[in-house]
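Take a sample.
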Amino acid sequence: MSHSCKILQTSAENIDLCVDLLRDGVVLGVPTETVYGLAGNALKEESVRRIFEVKGRPLLDPLIVHFSSIKQAEAHVEFNERARALAAQFWPGALTLVLRKKDTISDLVTAGLPSVAVRIPGHPIFRKLLERLEFPLAAPSANPFGYVSPTLAEHVAATLGDRVIAVLDGGACEYGVESTIADLRNPDTPTILRPGPLSAEQLGMQSVEVEQPSNKTAQPAPGMLSLHYSPNTPIMLFRHGERPSCVQKSEAVLYNTKPAADKLAENIFWLSESGDLKEIAHNLFTLIQKLDVRGYTQLQVERAENVDIGIAVNDRLIRAAAKR
C-alpha cells in the first residue's frame, strides 16, 4: 500500500485546513482522547459513506457521532433525564450514549436503527475542530475495519495509506482504548454495550451485563462484533498473574508488568513497569501494533486484572484473539 497519508502537525494553519476539508466533505484522521478517529460530516451522506469505504466497514456496524456541545446534540438526539445527568457529569469525555435519534441523522450512520451513539469528546484539538464546524462529526477508529485501533498519528498513516489524505497529529491518545458505550434508549434498564475508560460503577450501572449480539445483524453500537481489534499475528491469551505454559522462540510474550530480570528475553515485552491498569490500557494497542510487524508467529498476551479499565482491556483482547 502506498503511504501517501500526510501527517499534519498541530497548528492554527493546519486546523484551518482541516476545517475547510471537512466542510468540503473530505474524511480525515483526527486525534481523540481514546483512539484516533476517521472523521467526516455526520449530516452529509456522501461523507458518511466514504468513512465506511475507507475503513472497509460493514454497514451493520454503526458510527459514533461527535458533538461540540449538549445544545448541538439536542438538535439531533432525544435526551432523557438519566442521559442528561450522565452527560452533565462525564462530558466532555470518554462516554458514548446510545439514544433515540431524530430524522436529521441518516439511517446510514445508525445501521438503519432508530437510535444513535453520541458523545462530546475531551481531546482539545478535536474539540477545536468541532467548535469551528456547523455540523457534528462521525468518527470511528481510523484504521481498516477489524484491525488494531490507532493510538498514534503514525498508525493512521501506516494502516490507511492512500485511502485518506491526512491525519492531524494530536500526540499519543490518553486512554488507548475506545470510549465506554452506555445504552440509554430505555433509561430504566441502562446497559453497558462496550466497556471503556469509565466503569459501570462510575456510571451507576453496577449490575448490568455486556451484551453480545449477533455478528450478522445491525449493531446498536460499534465495537461489538466478536472478532475485532485484531492484528495480523494470531493472539493467544493467558490468565492474569500467570505465565504461558509453552513459548516458542518465534512467539512474543506480552505481560502486564515488567518481569524480574532473570525472566527477561528478546521475545518478552510488558505494558507497564508497575502493572498500573491505566498505563496498560494506554500502551496496549501501541505495543501490539509494534509487535505485529516483527514477524512473530504468535503473540501470547496476559489478561489484565478484570476491574476498572482492565475490563475494557480484556474485552479488546478477547475480540482480538477470536478465531478468523
Remarks:
- The radius of gyration is 19 Å.
- Confidence is low (pLDDT under 50) at residues 207-211.
